[in-house]
């Protein structure tokens, strides 16, 4: 394929797609993998941290446990504030280069990418989970305790199923943000979509055309993920129309077997 004219924008777009299309697709695959796995691990971290931050403080507990409780809460709060209060690009530089310089840990760029996205997402998700737990009516926690459930049983059997539905939109937002924010990992040479596009643009100095292609690919990925997550929300919500059970097991106190209603009339078996 011959080189297009200098001013032929769409000609250059087609030429670059033809020559670097597979490179763009591989970069998009790395971006999706980093975002999906990083968001999944980050959600797990966020759930654990969020639940630990809601642990009740027992004033009558042993002084050692009180100290451990306060120390745990301080560490969790520091983790959240540090990773929410600094840019991911700075975190990538500090963790990737700092771990080697300070501790001699020579991690691969991809491992560092997964690690950075995961712990960054975990910090945001921890506050999302805490807010989701606080949004559940306190009466449900009191009712669970009244029937003898422990704090962990209450969390994972009563509170968390409702919390997960409430925070699902935020989980989707974090996934979409991570798809875009993985572009900062090019600073540590992770070959994601932005890195691939930057390499292709430098070959012919056609930055506008290349990054037009890159922006379209990013939009396709984020739009598709947002539609899939919206579909998942509707599936979890279920139908807006419900039909009542047609059999009332308590309708006859004499122990007769109830049968389904026919034509608006209740019939019975003896």
UniProtKB/TrEMBL annotation:
Q: Does the keyword Membrane apply?
A: yes
Domain of life, source organism:
Bacteria
Bilayer disposition of the protein: Multi-pass membrane protein
Q: Where does the chain cross the membrane?
A: 20-50, 71-97, 109-126, 184-204, 210-229
Tell me where in or outside the cell this protein is found.
Cell membrane
Q: Which intervals hold domain ABC transmembrane type-1?
A: 28-229
Q: What InterPro entries does the record tag this protein with?
A: AA_ABC_transptr_permease_3TM, ArtM/GltK/GlnP/TcyL/YhdX-like, MetI-like, MetI-like_sf
Which keywords fit this entry according to its UniProt record? Amino-acid transport, Cell membrane, Membrane, Transmembrane, Transmembrane helix, Transport
* Family per similarity comment: Belongs to the binding-protein-dependent transport system permease family. HisMQ subfamily.
Q: What is this protein called?
A: Amino acid ABC transporter permease
Q: Which organism is it from?
A: Caproiciproducens faecalis
């Amino acid at each position: 394929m011959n080189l297009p004219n200098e001013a032929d924008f769409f000609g250059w777009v087609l030429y670059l797609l033809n020559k670097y299309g597979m490179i763009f697709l591989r970069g998009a695959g790395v971006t999706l993998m980093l975002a999906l796995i990083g968001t999944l691990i980050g959600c797990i971290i966020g759930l654990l941290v969020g639940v630990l931050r809601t642990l009740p403080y027992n004033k009558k507990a042993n002084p050692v446990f009180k100290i451990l409780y306060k120390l745990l809460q301080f560490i969790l709060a520091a983790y959240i504030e540090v990773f929410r209060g600094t840019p991911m690009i700075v975190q990538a530089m500090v963790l990737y280069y700092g771990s080697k310089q300070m501790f001699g840990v020579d991690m691969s760029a991809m491992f560092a990418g997964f690690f950075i996205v995961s712990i960054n997402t975990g910090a945001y998700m921890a506050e999302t989970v805490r807010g989701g737990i606080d949004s559940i009516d306190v009466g449900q926690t009191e009712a669970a305790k009244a029937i003898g459930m422990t704090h962990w049983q209450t969390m994972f059997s009563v509170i968390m199923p409702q919390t997960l539905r409430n925070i699902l939109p935020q989980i989707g937002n974090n996934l979409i943000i991570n798809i875009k924010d993985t572009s900062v990992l090019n600073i540590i040479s992770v070959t994601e979509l932005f890195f691939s596009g930057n390499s292709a643009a430098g070959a012919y100095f056609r930055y506008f055309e290349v990054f037009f292609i890159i922006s379209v690919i990013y939009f396709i990925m984020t739009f598709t993920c947002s539609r899939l997550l919206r579909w998942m929300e509707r599936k979890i919500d279920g139908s807006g129309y419900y039909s009542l059970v047609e059999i009332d097991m308590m309708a006859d106190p004499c122990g007769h077997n109830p049968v389904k209603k026919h034509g608006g009339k209740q019939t019975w078996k003896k």
